[in-house]
Design brief:
- With 291 residues, the protein is an alpha/beta fold.
- The chain folds into three domains: 63 residues, Winged helix-like DNA-binding domain superfamily/Winged helix DNA-binding domain (Arc Repressor Mutant, subunit A, Orthogonal Bundle), CATH 1.10.10.10; 104 residues, D-Maltodextrin-Binding Protein, domain 2, CATH 3.40.190; 97 residues, D-Maltodextrin-Binding Protein, domain 2.
- The strands form two sheets. An eight-stranded mixed β-sheet has the order 4-3-5-10-6-9-7-8, with helices on both faces. It has a two-stranded antiparallel sheet with strand order 1-2.
- Helix 1 crosses helix 2, helix 2 packs across helix 3 and helix 6 packs across helix 11.
- GO terms for molecular function: DNA-binding transcription factor activity; transcription cis-regulatory region binding.
- Belongs to the LysR transcriptional regulatory family.
Length: 291
């Protein structure tokens, strides 16, 4: 069980395929297959269920992947710690969809220009999933909207640190022609289009919509993008919650009706003690570009 084998295992798990993992690793398939078989023999368990060419993790495989991610992350962090003044290695950044679309392009371009030797991996998800990823060492840092049960003062108690880097105006968006609203009782649609549970914006929207009691027939329609949220709203069937910055990106926005819910900060969060040169440079760029 060495770091090379762990990286091979990780890629097979992520790709669900020996073939695709071998291509990414630039190794022959037989070598990847042998390393996985040797690892399973060493551990005494089956890490994958084989279904033709598809490789799906077993329960033990999912458990081992969590450990492999943490070991690989710690090894990379240790290598970077040997060169505190020279950004290098890998930086795994998580972000909310809205932040990735509206706030990240400029600082990421600047970061690439200043730190070309750093391999930057960007992934998106709900705030809750991103925070879990940082704590589990699947991510090095993440841009999130703090959940209602986790305020800034509570971050150190969870092993996290954070900076407020952007401020968003959060809007309730309603179908074209919908009367302006001041309270949930004035809504004519009872469905909220939103991301999966764990999305802080959805949480805030649900709290506002049910503040006076859950309306009859209220439900959440889960979708996977802000384009889908706006499409559901424009179709007249749903309300949605999103930052004003998303509307500002639209070339030909639907004439939706908006109601301002509140302003909310986007936080950069990271594990307590995580301080590689690459991360510190990225953090500094956000501080210069943040709102």
């Amino acid at each position: 069980m060495d770091l090379t084998t762990l990286e091979i295992f990780r890629l097979v798990a992520l790709e669900n395929s020996i073939t695709r993992a071998a291509q990414r690793l630039q190794r022959v398939q037989s070598n990847v297959t042998t390393r996985i078989q040797q690892l399973e023999e060493e551990l005494g368990v089956a890490l994958f269920l084989r279904d033709g060419k598809r490789m799906a993790l077993t329960e033990q495989g999912r458990t081992f992947l969590d450990y492999a991610e943490r070991l690989l992350s710690l090894a990379d962090e240790a290598r970077q710690a040997m060169h505190p003044d020279h950004p290098g290695g890998r930086l795994r950044l998580g972000s909310m969809e809205s932040t990735a679309a509206t706030h990240l392009p400029r600082p990421l371009a600047a970061f690439h220009g200043e730190c070309p030797e750093v391999t930057l991996e960007v992934s998106t998800g709900t705030s809750a999933a991103l925070i879990d990823g940082v704590l589990a060492r699947r991510l090095d840092c993440a841009l999130v909207a703090l959940p209602e049960n986790l305020d800034a003062a509570a971050l150190p108690g969870h092993g996290l640190q954070g900076d407020a880097v952007f401020r968003e105006e959060l809007l309730l968006v309603l179908p074209p022609g919908h009367p302006v609203v001041e309270s949930p009782a004035q809504l004519r649609v009872q469905t909220l289009a939103g991301f999966a549970k764990g999305c802080t914006y959805r949480q805030i929207g649900e709290q506002w919509l049910t503040a006076e009691g859950t309306p009859p027939g209220f439900r959440v329609q889960e979708v996977g993008s802000y384009h889908a949220i706006l499409a559901c709203v424009a179709a007249g069937t749903c309300s949605g919650v999103l930052p004003r910055s998303i509307l500002d990106l639209q070339r030909d926005p639907a004439p939706v009706v908006t109601h301002s819910l509140r302003e909310i900060d986007t936080w950069l969060v990271w594990r307590d003690g995580y301080a590689t040169a690459a991360f510190q440079r990225f953090r500094g760029l956000l501080g210069r570009n943040g709102a």
